[in-house]
Specification:
Elements lengths: L3 H15 L5 E6 L16 E7 L8 E2 L13 E7 L8 H11 E12 L18 H11 L5 E8 L8 E7 L19 E6 L2 E5 L6 H16 L4
Parallel strand pairs: 1-2, 1-4, 2-3, 4-5
Antiparallel strand pairs: 5-7, 6-7, 6-8, 8-9
Length: 228
C-alpha cells in the first residue's frame, strides 16, 4: 500500500545515498505494485530486482520462502523495503537475510508505517516506533554482523494519515566514511531523528502527530462549546 510519503522518502534516500554511487544493484523486498511503487524513485542508472511472495506487477522474482532471499552472500549493493515490513510476521528474520546479501559497504533502506489503518496484504502485524532502527541494528550485531544504523526518523504526514518510520542501515561499520551524506542534514519535516555519531535526538517528540491533531481538535471544540 504505497502512499505519498513512501515515494518522497524513497527519493530522499536515493538523492542522499545512491545517486553518488553510480551503477549499483538494488533489490526491493515487497515490490508488488498494489497502488504504485517506489521503483521510479530509485533512479534510472541501476540494476533493479523486485522480489515478493506472489507473481504480480512489479515483481521480478517470486520468493518460495519469504524469509529466504535467492541471492548469494555479499552480492548486492542496496536493498530497499517500503510499506512491507508491517506485513511480515517475522520481519527480524527478513532483516538478517537482507544483511547477508549486502556487500560490506551495502545499504538497507527501510520504510514502515508508524501509525495508520489496518491494511492486510494479506496480514497487518506491526507498526514501527522511534527506537525500532536501533533495535534492529543491535539484533544484527547479536547475530554476528557489524551493522550500524546511519540514521532514522519518523516523517510528518503529507496529505494523508501515515507517518513513515525510515531507517538506513550499513552492513559494515568500517565503511561509514564511504557514505558521508545524511537525509537529515536537510530534511526537517520529521520527529525523533537519529544520526550516527550524534547522541542527541533531533526534534524529539513524545506525542505523535495524530495525538497532537486530536488534542488540537479537542481544544477547538471546547472553545466552540463554551457558553457565551
Amino acid at each position: 500500500m504505497v502512499h505519498r510519503t513512501a515515494i518522497s522518502n524513497a527519493k530522499r534516500f536515493y538523492d542522499a545515498y545512491v545517486a553518488r554511487l553510480g551503477d549499483v544493484s538494488i533489490v526491493e523486498i515487497g515490490s508488488q505494485d498494489v497502488n504504485g511503487g517506489i521503483r521510479a524513485s530509485l533512479g534510472p542508472n541501476n540494476r533493479y530486482t523486485g522480489v515478493d511472495f506472489v507473481a504480480a506487477r512489479g515483481v521480478d522474482v517470486v520468493l518460495e520462502d519469504p524469509y529466504k532471499l535467492p541471492f548469494p552472500d555479499a552480492s548486492t549493493d542496496v536493498v530497499v523495503s517500503s510499506s512491507c515490513y508491517e506485513h511480515s510476521e517475522f520481519f527480524w528474520l527478513s532483516f538478517l537475510e537482507v544483511i547477508r546479501i549486502l556487500r560490506p559497504g551495502g545499504l538497507f533502506y527501510l520504510n514502515a508505517p508508524s501509525n495508520g489503518p489496518v491494511h492486510g496484504y494479506p496480514v497487518d502485524c506491526w507498526r514501527f516506533y522511534p527506537d525500532s532502527g536501533r533495535a534492529l541494528a543491535r539484533w544484527a550485531v547479536h547475530q554476528g554482523y557489524d551493522v550500524v544504523l546511519l540514521e532514522s526518523y519518523t516523517s510528518e504526514q503529507e496529505e494523508g494519515y501515515f507517518n513513515d518510520f525510515v531507517a538506513v542501515f550499513l552492513k559494515d561499520s568500517t565503511q561509514v566514511e564511504k557514505h558521508p551524506n545524511r537525509i537529515l542534514t536537510t530534511f526537517k519535516a520529521m520527529g525523533n531523528g537519529y544520526v550516527y555519531g550524534n547522541a542527541d535526538v533531533l526534534n524529539k517528540q513524545q506525542v505523535t502527530e495524530d495525538q497532537r491533531a486530536l488534542q488540537a481538535l479537542q481544544r477547538y471544540l471546547q472553545n466552540r462549546l463554551k457558553p457565551v
